[in-house]
Every structure is written in structure tokens, then in C-alpha cells.
Amino acid sequence: MILSVAVLVSHLAGAPALSPYQPDPVELQRARQLMLSRPGECVALTNFFLQRKEVDPAQMINSRQDFDHQELARRYRTREQTQAAWQIQALCQANDGLPLPADASINKAIELARRYRQADAEASGLTIKAKLALARQDPEQARALLDEADALLTENSPVSLTSALPLLQASALLYQHRFDEARQAFEHIRVQAQQRGRHLQQAWANYLLGGYYQLLQQDELALSHYVETLSLLGKRRQYYLKAIAAEKAASLYAALNKGEQAVHYANMATTEFELLGNPTLLIGSLLNLGRVTRAGNDANLALVYFFNALDLVKTQGDSELMARLYLEIGHCYRQLDNAAEARHYLTLARTSFKRSQDIPRQIDTLLQLGQLHLEQQEPGLALLQLDQARQLAEQRDDVPHLIESHRLLALLFETSGNPSQALVHQKAFHDYYERASQLNRLLTQSLVQDSDQQLQQERELAGLRQQNAQLQQDKQRFTLLATSLGLISPLLLYGLLRNYIRSRRLQHDNSALQHSLLVEPRTGLPNWRQLMQRLPQEMAKRQQRSEQWYLNEAEAQPFNDKIYYLLLHVPFMVDLSERIGLAHAADLQKKLGDYLQGRIHPKARLYDLREGQFIYVISQRQVVDLQQTLASLERMFAEFPSQFELDQRLAIGIIGHPFLPKAPHALDDMRLGDILYLAMAAAHQLTEQTGERAWVELLAVDCQQAAFFNGDIRHCCVQAILKGLVKVNSSHKKQQIDWHALAPEPAATL
């Protein structure tokens, strides 16, 4: 990643042009030319130039003799040339994969610019340093550096700087996962660049937009932007940008099983990398071209590309790349049924991977050798290779490789007449396959608590309804009697009055009981029954609006009419009675309920699910910023007055409904509840790890992949998280969440 990022800097934020009376020395001119193709030589040239002594520019400007001026220019360096040399050296070091020396070099350039108060040079250095920070996955530092550089720019600043800065600021937003802001920024840059005739800036904005859509799994949109980037560049000599755009297009076409287009763009990428002159990038492009060509069943042509790459690698002496090429060449020969050559190259690859302790590629090589021996009807040798691959995969718990090794072992024993062993490996194959494709349901508490009490209340409610029906019949009977027995009207009126009073009393009792069934008695807040009573209507309403939005999708506006469901775990409510006693616990819970009802948003609802769990429901239209809402909730519990010391480290899980805006009917309320509990479990895990409040939001990407969520919803959701189909926003680093720990394997059945 350092290489691609630094090359972007080289194109958009190079050293500023020197003054007219101080042209670039020969060393710096040559270093600029070698910045992309041979960065190592570029670093050597800048080091050689920086060995000159620095001279005051006035001595060169005021020199009265041309000979003296030329002699000074040949032996000395000026301040501006020194700054340019340090900037060029930083870029070359970054392109050569040396991030720490690159950072040190650019710091020297920035220090010189500040010392001599040269704002444009300082802004250029800060821009390069910000890009290197992005390469280190530090978008916050990059953002601060870019803001500092922006403050230094003026109307007379170089176009290279004013073009680079907006692109880098938008890239920083993308690194911070502020996707909507990044997309809007890229679109704005692209439109402005088109209006101002800045074709290179427009092409870069278009390319980075393709990366944005690819990150969101919208491959067709990403592909269209990469192709459009190539069209914008045309015949311009922007070899690197054209090469990486073509390489991205080739990978996407290959994923879409469009072999001809994939080979075409892979060829284009290789051509551009060859024109660029960087052998490392050319080798990677040849590898990709060979794989794409072999996937198109042209192994002979793929061998040509792999051998060309092998010649370049031998010149560089990179043993790791050489071993990878041996593996690819052996694969091609096996596909061509050339057993001798395939065995030779696969053996070389295996030896090299074993020496470098590259276990995954060693397993790949053993599987290739095993398949080769199988095809040559050598079951004994095949068994040795495949069994060793299985053992290495078991050591690493490498499930994909275990699936493939057991599949091949089952095939081996089946063809060699050993059905019992074949059955063993076939079972293992299915077990690992199931393990890879299915996760267990996360064990959490159900929304339904105290089932005995619930059953009793339901019985009482049914009895009251029956009494009410009987009273209605009595009322009708008395009405008939009133019409036929006018002589006894006083008695009839008395009976009707008595029946009316009794009916009103029972209706009042019925209403009170129904209200009590919908309210948690300890806190006075609405309970899970009220939530489940209202949930279907809310879901149906949002599903209808989501369908209307989907029909108007041409407007390219995101769906902004969700309902947020926030599941809060309040630790001090879990074991309150055990810690402070029943009387104090009841009093504190009642005060908490009254306090929360007065603090929540007027258009939000809060439900008490017992056992320290609350659900906070609010419309997206009422949420200006979700993090502000979360901060308000945390502050609301933190400011609750109490004489007892309370554990207020909230763990909050968040989802929005519809979870899949383009397929709103795919998930019902129970499945959404499972996803919400999964989010809260992840937040609870973060709370236990950090000792702080934590929240986790699960948000499906904007795609029509509802079929992916068929089956066990927790397994599907975790799988979607691992594949990037469900985004995870969190108060802490998402990498701290162990999703596999949240979904343990089921106990083996006897």
C-alpha cells in the first residue's frame, strides 16, 4: 500500500517549481525522471546532490561574471534546491518501500521551509507527509496536516498543490469511513476539474471514486469509473494511473467471469507498467496477466507471461517472488498435462516456501503436487503430499485449505478402492465446509422474561374478556325486557343502571390491567409487550417507504427514513436487588423510570426489557448525528442522581430498520432482534476489554443481496461482517471485536 500511495503523491504533490533563475540541477532533473521507474537510483542521486555545500542565493543572483555563476551552480546548492531535493528524496524512498526514511526526509524539507518562511514549500511538504500518514493508516494525523497545509495556500500557490490538496482531503475522509462525505467531495472535485480543464485531477478523482464504490461492494459502478478514467487519460503519458486503473478493471472483469475483457485490460496494465519502467510493478502486472490468461484456458500463453516475469525476478534476486512464479508455472504445466515440468517447478516452489516458512503457499504447492500425482495415477505419492498439506493446515486451523485437502483425500481413497477412508475424509470435508459456512446462534437472553407471571396475566386478561362478553349479553337481555315490560320500568331502569355501573367498572379494570401488561411495574416504562404491539405497524410503514425510495433510486439519494433501534445494557440494573436490597432497589428503579421519561427525546420511545436491558427507538429524521444521540444517552444515565455507587458503563447495540433498504421484507422482527442482540454483544465485549462505555452499530451496505441472509441469521450476519457486506461502526477499534467468540460452535451431539 505504501507504494501506490506514495506514487499518488509523486503525481499530485511533487516539489514546487524552482525560481526561473535557478533551474533544476542535472542530478535533480534525473532524480525526478527516475522517481517512479527506479526509486533506488533516485534516492542515490538526491543523496549525492545533498553533499554539495549550501550557498546564499544572493551570491548567485548578484554574480557579475557568467563563469563564476556557472561554477557556483555546479558546485553549490541553494535553499530552494535543498528543499526540492529533500522532497524528491522522500517521494523516492516511499516509492522504494521505505516509509520511515521517507518521513524523516520530508520532515527536513518542512523544517527548512518554516525556517525561511516559504509557505508554498511548507504546504507541499505537509501534503506529502499527510499522504505518508494515510499510507500508515493514520487518517486523523493526515487530516490535521492537510488542514495546516490548506491554511498556507494562497491564490498564487502552484496548481499542483491546489489540485492535490482536495483529493487528499477526500481520501482522508474515505480512510475515516465517512463514506457519504468522501463521495460528495470526490464528485465535487471531478465536476470542478472538468469545468477548469484539469484533466489529470479529474482522472484521479474518477479513479478514487471507483475505489470508493469497490469498497462498498458495488463492483459494476466501480468498473465503470475505472474504464472512464482510462478514457479520460486517452494517450496522455500518465503510465502509472493508466496501469493501476486497467489492473483494477481486469480484476473486476475476472470476478464477473468476463475473460476476454479481463485479459484485454490486464494486457493494457502490463503495457503501461512496462512504459513506466518500474520492474517490481511490471512483475506484479505480469503475474496478474498470467493468472487471468490461465483462467481463460490458455495456459501456454500464461507460461509466456510467467517466464517473462521470472527473467525480471532473476535480475532482481527476489527469492520470494521467484518461488511464487515457480508455483504458477507448475500450475500451468499441470494444466497442460506436462507432468515432468510441473513436478520440477512445483518441487522448486515447495523447497523455497519451506525455507522461507511461508506455510499457506507451501500448502498450495503440496495440494498442486497431490493433484499432479492423482492425475498420474500415483496414489502413494499423492497421499504423502495431500496428508502433509492437511497436517500443515490443521496446525494453522486453515479451514479453506482443510476443505480442499479432505476433498482431494476423499477422491484419492475413493479411486484407490478404500471406501472406508474415503468416507472418513468425506465427512471431514463436510464438517469443515459446514464450519466455514455456518455459525452458531449467539446465546442471549430472550425478550420474554418471567414466563410464569406472563401466563398468569394472560389468563386474567382472558377471564376479563369473557366477563365483558357476558355483560354485553346481559345488557341486550335487559334491553329486550325493557321494551316488553314497560310496567316494571323502574325495576328495569335500576337493573340497567346497575349493569352500566358494573360494566364501566369492569371496563376500567380491564383498561387498567391492559395498561399494566404494557408497562414494566418496576420502572413504569413501556415493556417488551408494548414494543411487540407497535413493532409490526412501524416495520410495515418503513417497508412501504423503503419500497417507494427504491422505485425512485434514480435520484441517487440514500434512504434516510429508517428507525434506529438502540439496545442498551445498563450494568447496575442487572444485580441491583442483590447489591442494595429489595426496598432500595425498588425505590431506585422507580426513580430511574421517572427520570428517564423526563430526559428522553420527545419523539423517541424507551422500553424496559428487564435484566438491565432497554431499547431506545427513534426515527432517523430526529437524529442529526447518531454519535450525539449516543452521547446524550450516556450522559442521561451518567447524570442520574443516586446515593449508591452505580456501574454506568453502557454497552449499546444499534441497527436501523429497514436493515436492507432495497429488500425491506427480507428480515422479520425476530431476525432483526437477533442482529440487534449481536450488536449489543459486540459492544459488551468491548466494554469488558476496555473498561469503558462502548457502542457498536451494524449497517448493511447498500446492495441487493437479501439472499445472503437466508438461513441462521446470526451466522449469516457474522459472515456478512467478515466479508464486508455489513459495516461495523464502533466507539472503539473494530478490530478488537472477536466475532467468532460471539458465535461459539455447538456442542457435539452423542
Automatic annotation (TrEMBL):
The keyword Coiled coil applies. InterPro entries: Bac_ResReg_Asp_Phosphatase (IPR051476), Rev_trsase/Diguanyl_cyclase (IPR043128), TPR-like_helical_dom_sf (IPR011990), TPR_rpt (IPR019734). Belongs to the Rap family. Its main location: cytoplasm. It is found in: Cytoplasm. The keyword Oxidoreductase does not apply. Residues 454-481 form a coiled coil. Keywords: Coiled coil, Cytoplasm, Repeat, TPR repeat. It comes from Oceanisphaera psychrotolerans. GO terms for cellular component: cytoplasm. Transmembrane segments: none annotated. It comes from the Bacteria. This is GGDEF domain-containing protein.
